[in-house]
Design brief:
Structural class: alpha+beta
Distance between the termini: 18 Å
Order of helices and strands: EEHHHHHEEEEEHHEEHH
Largest sheet: 7 strands, mixed
Number of helices: 9
C-alpha cells in the first residue's frame, strides 16, 4: 500500500501531495508505538492524532524533508515536528535487538551463519577538532562507521554504535567483542577482507573471510575460488545495507554519533517491518 501524504508548503503557501512508499503495517507500527507511549506517560492531548504524527515522522525519515516544510503543510511548528521526530526515533530504537539477543534468536530459528560487514554513513563536514575524526581516508568523505549483522537472506539483525569515520572495521568489531558473542551463540560469520585477523582462535574460527594475496605469495586457483564463494554468499549483506539506506535521512547526517546511533537503530526496526526475505 502506498500512502498519500500532504507534505510541504512552498514560499507562496501552496501545499502539494507526495507519495510515501511504505506499507500500512509500518504506519500502524509507529502509530501504535506513539499511542502506547502517550498512554504510559498519561498524555491526553497532542496537536494531531497518533496516526498523523506517525505519517509526518515517516515522511521526514523516508524523504528527508525539511522540518519547516513538513510543519507548514500540516499546520504545526517546526519545533513540534522535531520533538515528534526525536520521540518516535527513541521509541523505535528501544525495540532494536542488542547483539546477544539477536544472535540467540537466530540460533533458535535454526540459523548457523550470519553476515558481518561495515558501512559508512556520510555526515556534514564539521569544523575545528571534530573535523578530522570523522574523515574516512578509505572513502575520502566525512562520515560515521557502523557495523551490521544480517542473516543469510540479508535481513538486518543488529547495528553497532556509531564510530568516527577514521575507525577501522576490525577495531570496531573487536571493541564490540563480536567473536565472543558468536561463540556463545554457536554461530559463524562470513566477512570481507577488512576483517582478516579478527578471529582470535585460528584453530576453531567463527569468522570466515577470504584470503589476501601478498607480494611474495600470490593466491592459488583454489584460494581464488574460495574467495569467490565467500563473496557470493556475502552478497545478501549488501541488500540489507541498501534497504537501510533507502531512508533518505541517511543521505547526509546532521547529528552527532550518539543521536546517529539511536537513529540507525530506529531505522533498523522500520526496515525490518518493511522488508522480510
Amino acid at each position: 500500500m502506498r500512502l498519500n501524504n500532504h507534505s510541504v508548503e512552498g514560499p507562496e503557501g501552496l501545499v502539494y501531495q507526495c507519495r510515501l512508499p511504505l506499507s500500512s503495517a509500518t504506519l500502524d507500527l509507529v502509530a501504535t508505538a506513539i499511542r502506547t507511549h502517550l498512554q504510559k506517560i498519561g498524555s491526553r492531548w497532542r496537536k494531531l492524532p497518533p496516526g498523523r504524527i506517525a505519517l509526518i515522522v515517516l515522511a521526514v525519515l523516508r524523504h528527508d524533508q525539511r522540518l519547516s516544510d513538513v510543519a507548514g503543510g500540516n499546520g504545526v511548528s517546526a519545533s513540534t515536528v522535531r520533538r515528534w521526530l526525536l520521540e518516535v526515533v527513541g521509541l523505535l530504537a528501544a525495540r532494536a535487538q542488542r547483539l546477544d539477543r539477536a544472535l540467540k534468536k537466530t540460533t533458535r530459528k535454526g540459523g548457523v551463519v550470519v553476515l558481518l560487514d561495515g558501512t559508512l554513513v556520510r555526515t556534514r563536514r564539521r569544523t575545528g577538532d571534530e573535523n578530522r575524526p570523522n574523515y574516512s581516508g578509505k572513502h575520502k568523505v566525512h562520515g560515521l562507521l557502523f557495523l551490521a549483522l544480517t542473516d543469510e537472506r540479508g535481513n538486518l539483525l543488529w547495528i553497532s554504535a556509531a564510530r568516527p569515520g577514521r575507525s577501522s572495521e576490525i577495531t570496531a568489531a573487536r571493541h564490540d567483542k563480536i567473536t565472543t558473542h558468536l561463540r556463545r551463540a554457536g554461530l559463524g560469520a562470513l566477512a570481507d577482507l577488512g576483517f582478516v585477523g579478527l578471529d582470535d582462535d585460528p584453530d576453531d574460527p567463527v569468522i570466515v573471510t577470504g584470503r589476501r594475496a601478498t607480494r611474495g605469495h600470490p593466491l592459488t586457483s583454489a584460494e581464488k575460488e574460495a574467495n569467490r564463494l565467500v563473496s557470493r554468499e556475502r552478497a545478501a549483506n549488501e541488500h540489507g545495507f541498501a534497504d537501510l539506506k533507502n531512508w533518505r535521512i541517511l543521505t547526509k547526517l546532521r547529528m552527532n554519533a550518539r543521536h546517529a546511533t539511536t537513529l540507525l537503530r530506529a531505522l533498523l526496526v522500520l526496515t525490518n517491518a518493511e522488508v522480510q526475505r
